[in-house]
């Protein structure tokens, strides 16, 4: 009986291997946990192999890792076309049908996904220094992923996308602008009839944390990589104390725009992020809590 | 007896897996290219080999000069030039230099064409003696390519860091309208040629760098933004894959079809030529 559960992918794994065969995380190193409870996601070891179905994926490189697939006959992966690095001429490439193309285009999401069908080899990489994160999903398990973090998924993982409902509006009546600090839409991936593999790319370093029921955290919206669907998310506006300039403290960019994550469930963040844009006063926003110091 | 001694020497010498140079027994880094000799080559199942990750402060020699590589995220190549040696480079990769190192310009043929193609009009030459250092402005790795006499290497524009003065520098225009418009590699490629003397060429690859040797006639499709270098014997041709995008019609996805024989080098971090992402 196998009692070892990989702490990074939460799947029963093989402790006799050097790396978890499902997510590539090293098995033979101790967890690195900060005092506040963030677990550092260890980089996938150079040349580590991940098994899925009859195919496998090999991770090459450490600065901007490449995910190289050896696809078996009848198996496929899909991805956004701009992450394709190279392909065997034998690998069959075709576009994946997607709904809501117009909305996706307006939201700045890739309009087209490409399917690569085995047998053949294909390699994918993002264009930021960072880490590849492998998430094996069990049958029926879903995961929310921030836009532009998705690298690829195996064919049996269903791809969907929903509005994040985290937004705020700045500007006056004539020139109002709506901001989406987490992106307008989030990607939802669900393993359908059997387990599947989801690969993400995180710029910088990645950290994970398991929130207990009701436990909450404030994080920069753009630093999110993924979270369980059980985690609730809403906007949080925080204004530092600013004696003598009360009008300023309530309106201007002295504020912090964050999101609150409420457990239970796992959340992951990366160390490279952008501060939410918009220096002007917030006129309207999605559900949010406020704190004025 | 002499034959036996030579055989023992050959057995004891360590051959560098990257540049094939022979090294003294017991050495841990190649004296010709700086590759670690005490770690195994990293080759993926499909035959892509990782360029050796040069250790911080690794030192190696070329001609009568030395090069030391500093840093691992955005590595710096620091050259100690002997009086008879010189290196040339694009002027914006110069990080620092001794005051005494003279700089001159190496005029390139086809200046107007180069300017129109977005390539530097003038290549700068640094002459020894003295120290000078170079780096590009992105996380990645240095690719050290010692060139033997009679070699020709084509390099993506703006990827070369420096070359020794024994290497001839020219450029080749990318032929064919489809290749120009959709190839994603600009109008020109740098071409480095060695005649009767060997030389050292250093490139900067963004992200990680991988190399593969193609057999005669063997083909591989590469994202044009990921192409870094190739032997001049490898041909490169833009090919279009037609992908349907529902109500938005068809989307032409262009890839570079590389055909052997020869080496192909790619980088894992690139700007996708079609989307700019």
SSE layout and pairings?
The complex is a heterodimer of chains A (293) and B (277).
Chain A: E1 39-40, E2 49-52, E3 55-60, E4 66-71, E5 76-80, E6 84-87, E7 92-96, H1 101-106, E8 113-117, E9 120-124, E10 130-137, E11 142-146, E12 150-154, E13 157-163, E14 168-170, E15 177-179, E16 185-191, E17 196-203, E18 206-211, E19 216-219, E20 224-228, E21 232-239, H2 246-251, E22 256-262, E23 265-270, E24 282-285, E25 288-292
Parallel strand pairs in A: 21-25
Antiparallel strand pairs in A: 1-18, 2-3, 3-4, 4-9, 5-8, 5-12, 6-9, 7-8, 10-17, 11-16, 11-20, 12-17, 13-16, 14-15, 14-24, 18-23, 19-22, 20-23, 21-22
Chain B: H1 2-12, E1 14-15, E2 22-23, E3 49-50, E4 58-62, E5 65-70, E6 76-81, E7 86-90, E8 94-97, E9 103-107, H2 111-116, E10 122-127, E11 130-134, E12 140-147, E13 152-156, E14 160-164, E15 167-173, H3 177-182, E16 188-194, E17 199-206, E18 209-214, E19 219-222, E20 227-231, E21 235-244, E22 250-259, E23 262-267
Antiparallel strand pairs in B: 1-2, 3-18, 4-5, 5-6, 6-11, 7-10, 7-14, 8-11, 9-10, 12-17, 13-16, 13-20, 14-17, 15-16, 18-23, 19-22, 20-23, 21-22
Helix content of chain A: under 10%
Average pLDDT, all residues of chain A: 88
Uncertain runs of chain B are: none
Rg value of chain B = 20 Å
Helix-strand pattern of chain A, N to C? EEEEEEEHEEEEEEEEEEEEEEHEEEE
Distance between the termini of chain B: 64 Å
Tally of alpha and pi helices of chain B = 3
Proportion of strand residues of chain A? over 45%
* Strand count of chain A: 25
Low-confidence stretches of chain A: none
Characterize the quaternary organization of these chains: heterodimer
Q: Strand portion of chain B, in percent? A: over 45%
Major sheet size, sense and barrel closure of chain B: 7 strands, antiparallel
Q: What's the average pLDDT of chain B?
A: 85
Alpha carbon gap, first and last residue of chain A: 54 Å
Structural class of chain A: mainly beta
């Amino acid at each position: 009986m196998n009692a070892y559960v990989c702490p990074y992918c939460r799947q029963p794994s093989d402790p006799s291997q050097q790396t978890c065969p499902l997510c590539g995380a090293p098995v033979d190193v101790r967890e690195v946990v900060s005092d506040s409870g963030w677990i550092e996601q260890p980089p996938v070891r150079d040349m580590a192999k991940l098994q899925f179905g009859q195919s496998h994926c090999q991770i090459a490189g450490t600065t901007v890792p490449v995910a190289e697939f050896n696809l078996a006959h009848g198996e496929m992966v899909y991805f956004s076309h701009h992450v394709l690095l190279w392909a065997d001429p034998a690998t069959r490439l075709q576009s994946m049908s997607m709904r809501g193309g117009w909305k996706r285009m307006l939201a700045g999401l890739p309009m087209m996904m490409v399917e690569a069908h085995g047998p053949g080899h294909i390699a994918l990489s993002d264009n930021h220094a960072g880490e590849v994160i492998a998430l094996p999903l069990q049958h029926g398990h879903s995961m929310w992923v921030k836009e532009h973090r998705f690298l690829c998924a195996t064919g049996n993982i269903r791809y969907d996308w929903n509005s994040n409902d985290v937004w705020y509006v700045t500007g006056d009546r004539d020139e109002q602008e709506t901001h989406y600090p987490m992106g307008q839409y989030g990607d939802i991936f669900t393993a359908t009839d059997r387990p599947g593999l989801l690969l993400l790319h995180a710029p910088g370093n990645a950290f994970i944390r398991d929130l207990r029921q009701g436990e909450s955290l404030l994080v920069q919206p753009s630093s999110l990589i993924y979270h369980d669907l059980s985690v609730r998310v809403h906007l949080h506006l925080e204004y530092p104390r600013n004696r003598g300039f009360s009008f300023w403290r309530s309106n201007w960019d002295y504020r912090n725009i964050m999101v609150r994550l409420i457990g239970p469930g796992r959340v992951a963040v990366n160390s490279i992020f952008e501060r939410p844009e918009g220096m002007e006063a917030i006129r309207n926003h999605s559900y949010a809590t406020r704190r004025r110091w | 007896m002499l034959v036996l001694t030579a055989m023992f020497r050959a057995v004891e010498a360590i051959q560098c897996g990257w540049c094939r140079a022979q090294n003294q027994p017991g050495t841990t880094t190649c004296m010709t290219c700086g590759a670690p000799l005490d770690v195994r080559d990293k080759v993926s199942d499909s035959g892509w080999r990782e360029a050796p990750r040069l250790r911080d402060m690794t030192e190696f020699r070329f001609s009568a000069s030395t090069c030391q590589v500093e840093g691992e995220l955005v590595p710096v190549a620091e050259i100690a030039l002997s009086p008879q040696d010189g290196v040339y480079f694009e002027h914006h990769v110069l990080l620092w230099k001794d005051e005494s190192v003279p700089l001159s310009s190496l005029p390139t043929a086809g200046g107007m064409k180069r300017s129109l193609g977005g390539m530097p009009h003038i290549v700068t030459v640094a002459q020894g003696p003295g120290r000078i250092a170079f780096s590009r402005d992105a996380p990645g790795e240095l690719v050290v390519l010692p060139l033997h006499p009679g070699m020709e290497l084509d390099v993506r524009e703006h990827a070369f860091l420096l070359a020794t003065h024994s290497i001839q520098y020219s450029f080749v225009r990318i032929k064919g309208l489809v290749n120009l418009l959709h190839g994603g590699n600009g109008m020109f490629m740098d071409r480095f040629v060695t005649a009767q003397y060997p030389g050292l060429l250093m490139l900067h690859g963004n992200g990680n760098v991988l190399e593969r040797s193609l057999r005669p006639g063997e083909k591989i499709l590469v994202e044009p933004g990921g192409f870094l270098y190739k032997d001049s014997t490898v041909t490169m041709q833009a090919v279009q894959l037609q992908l349907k995008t529902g109500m938005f019609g068809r989307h032409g996805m262009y890839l570079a079809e590389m055909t052997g024989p020869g080496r192909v080098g790619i980088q894992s971090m690139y700007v996708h030529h079609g989307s700019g992402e």
